[in-house]
UniProtKB/TrEMBL annotation:
<dbReference type="InterPro" id="IPR051604">
    <property type="entry name" value="Ergot_Alk_Oxidoreductase"/>
</dbReference>
<feature type="domain" description="NAD(P)-binding">
    <location>
        <begin position="6"/>
        <end position="187"/>
    </location>
</feature>
<protein>
    <submittedName>
        <fullName>Uncharacterized protein YbjT (DUF2867 family)</fullName>
    </submittedName>
</protein>
<dbReference type="InterPro" id="IPR016040">
    <property type="entry name" value="NAD(P)-bd_dom"/>
</dbReference>
<dbReference type="InterPro" id="IPR036291">
    <property type="entry name" value="NAD(P)-bd_dom_sf"/>
</dbReference>
<dbReference type="Pfam" id="PF13460">
    <property type="entry name" value="NAD_binding_10"/>
</dbReference>
Amino acid sequence: MILVTGATGTVGREVVSQLVGEGRPVRALTREPDRDLGFPRSVEVAGGDLGRPETLGAAVAGVESVFLLTGGGPETPLHDANLALAALDAGVRHIVKLSIIGAAYGFDDLVSTWHLAGERAIRQIGDRPGGPAWTFVRPGEFMSNARLWAGPVKARRTVIWAQTEAAVAVIDPRDVAAVAVTTLTTPGHDGQTYRISGPEALTVGERVAKLGAALGDQLTLVERPVADVRDAAARAGRQPLVVETTLGNLGRPEFRERAATVLPAVEKIIGRAPYTFDRWAADHVEIFR
């Protein structure tokens, strides 16, 4: 049995789907187990909250491996530790944590620091007798962040964003999930950290042009301060500190250099090239119509 946390989010739902597609037994952790979450009938749903460790025992019972996805806010290290301790008590063999690429480079921004602290908690608990092995998957920016452009694209054929000149090797969440599924289901990944990226570094302008091509229309890009984009993202339900930190990092030369680096790990791990932004845009074009 494989437990998936964050199972209703973009990456978690894709991990569930790919595991089901491989015929793996899957249990999805949610705070709302009585709600219809749209999972296939074969998926077992378990109630639990990473912030309430007393709720996690039943969720990890009988589980061999865990895909650990936490919210990315300041609660990340505590949630990671809570799950790792429950996994230790239950005899879970392996935890695959979705981290962030900044943790690989020791960046001192909030989000990288939170994830790095979570990684350290998992390592420490894993070092205890009978502790779970771990794998850390460290992606950069997701292609799906472009979903935040949908409102102004539909209304005015306009994209409003910040730090538009920085090139980023954005990655398709489906590829992030594929890496996670491979590390969950095949041997040889214990104690490994994987920095992963998409296949090409693109500025926001280049991504906007590709999205416009998928729509068959020309889009206008409008540059705004980070604070304006942060506030708009918060109104759309995103964690404002995460958005502010991610965009703020792109103003730092050392971060820009790393963000633009195309990494080979995805193809090495899953055996195919990562998806391009053109493919992501074509597959999700209806979001923007």
